Task: structure prediction
Amino acid sequence: MNILATAGVVVCRNRPHVTAAETGTAPTTDYALAQKASEGDMAAFEELYQRHNRRVYSLCLRMTGNVSEAEDLAQEVFIQLFRKIGSFRGESAFTTWLHRMTVNQVLMHFRKRGVRMEQTTEDGETPIQIVKGTENPNAMPVVDRIALDKAIAQLPPGYKMVFTLHDIEGHEHEEIARMLGCSVGTSKSQLHKARMKLRGLLRQQNVKK
Result:
């Protein structure tokens, strides 16, 4: 049986998940489940895991481009969730809170690996140039999105991080700068260079077709 079992958290990954619709009961909100989980209700915590584990894993995978790292980080996120579930007050959507926790976990992972941002002053900002067809990655055709994901996975870690946070997750440069502990100019510079690198990688893929 494939399970998540660390720090007292046990979540069955391959156990059939029964939805509220299948049981004929009204769906419980994330907030209500979080409150129950904070009181030690493991069934409530497992329900949260079943609802959100794919989203968490997908975000980890987009930011790292590495399946093994994404799996480990997703597990770490839910370990942190188990430990901190009592601090969720419902002031924002649970998905927003969990998204922030996931991003922070990935950023911590990069810091431990010594991934550094190329420092750029505010005066050294580069012009914003978007790779044609990638203005809204989440709305791209499936084939093009696969090609983009493949190209993103080849980006240097710093470029990949900023591109994912800005162009895919929709964070503003000011927020990214706070997350990464860098200047707004550095965030913009990293994004510009990531887009230019992606342009070259996508051209290479087109040539190979």
